[in-house]
Design goal:
2 domains, globular, 0% strand
């Protein structure tokens, strides 16, 4: 397994270098946006709102987007506002930060031609849903000890590799999506067959050029295979996988995957020592996150795909549950250590 991963990482490096040198130019992150990203990673109550507003005002596109959102149909009964401070007050700092991140990445990263089952607008809708779900999984009550801001960024960027593959290898990636859909199998499995690696590993190699925190890069790199991540990154990768599947079940956008994994079959969902592995916790998370996504869909603009109504009377079972593994030691640190002692 280790040799296989080394080979996949080598191929991912080769593919990413080819993409960046021949077909896709990834611009450098502007200083004001890099500072915004630093704020995004902080707890909401620690964000310096005047400083955040100053950074947003330095980018006309971000400034305009926040004003449009504050004056959108969602707030149609309120007076029109023209100042950024008033817009932030109306929307709330957390949702303003979320919208800024989405707007920035959409503006920075190139478009790809729509393919069947994987359109540009659906791609960003799904990425947003994954980011919102991932941020929620960082709540202290779940005890996962990961910054919600890091999880939000990993969720937003998890699909970068798909975007790049769709641009540089449109026919080949189209075939991957079609095969995953036809056989209802994970897209990562098809990518390994056709590319020799996964979109997550390709994305991770590209994100390193942005010098983002390792926690975010590795969470993206291993969201399709958390068990292969290094011990210090296994939680963020596992949570991103968990959020990815919540987004898939929500019906918000599309991810190109042919398999909607039951949450109990995700990497963290199979660890009975964790709160997130309990069925009642999963059901509560689904209800809360689905409700949140539906309420916040206006932030995506008129092109957003509305979520598909799904009953949430229990966690959907798409395949038989695997035999539970041995109870893990209490605490995140003890649990991670146990993974490398034959657990």
């Amino acid at each position: 397994m280790k040799d296989t991963l080394v080979g996949e990482k080598t191929i991912a490096l080769s593919i990413s270098q080819e993409i960046l040198t021949t077909s896709v130019e990834i611009p450098a992150i502007p200083d004001n946006v890099r500072q915004i990203f630093t704020m995004v990673r902080q707890p909401e109550e620690k964000i310096d709102i005047p400083e955040f507003a100053k950074l947003v005002e330095a980018d006309p596109g971000l400034f305009t987007r926040i004003l449009q959102l504050a004056n959108s149909q969602y707030y149609s009964e309120m007076d029109k506002i023209v100042s950024l401070r008033a817009a932030i007050t109306r929307i709330g700092i957390k949702e303003t930060v979320n919208s800024v991140c989405l707007q920035f990445f959409q503006k920075l990263l190139p478009k790809f031609p729509d393919i069947k089952g994987f359109s540009y607008n659906d791609f960003w809708t799904f990425s947003w849903a994954c980011a919102v779900a991932n941020r929620r999984l960082g709540h202290p009550m779940l005890g996962m000890d990961v910054l919600p801001g890091d999880l939000y960024m990993a969720g937003m960027l998890h699909g970068l590799g798909k975007l790049l593959l769709a641009i540089h290898y449109p026919e080949k990636f189209d075939a991957c999506v079609a095969k995953a859909r036809e056989f209802e199998c994970p897209l990562a499995e098809v990518e390994r067959d056709m590319f020799g690696t996964t979109d997550g590993l390709v994305a991770a190699r590209v994100l390193k050029t942005w010098q983002l925190p390792a926690n975010i890069i590795e969470g993206v790199g291993y969201y399709q295979m958390p068990e292969q991540a290094q011990p210090e990154y296994i939680i963020v990768a596992g949570l991103t996988q968990f959020a990815y599947n919540i987004a898939a079940l929500s019906g918000m956008g599309t991810c190109g995957d042919g398999n909607k994994m039951d949450l109990s079959q995700t990497f963290l969902g199979q660890k009975p020592g964790l709160s997130i592995a309990r069925e009642n916790t999963q059901e509560a998370l689904l209800r809360e996150i689905f409700k949140s996504l539906k309420a916040k869909a206006t932030y995506l603009g008129p092109q957003a795909v509305k979520p598909v109504a799904r009953p949430v009377s229990g966690v959907v079972r798409t395949r038989p549950k695997k035999k539970p593994v041995q109870e893990a030691p209490k605490g995140i640190v003890g649990w991670v250590k146990s993974l490398f002692k034959g657990d």
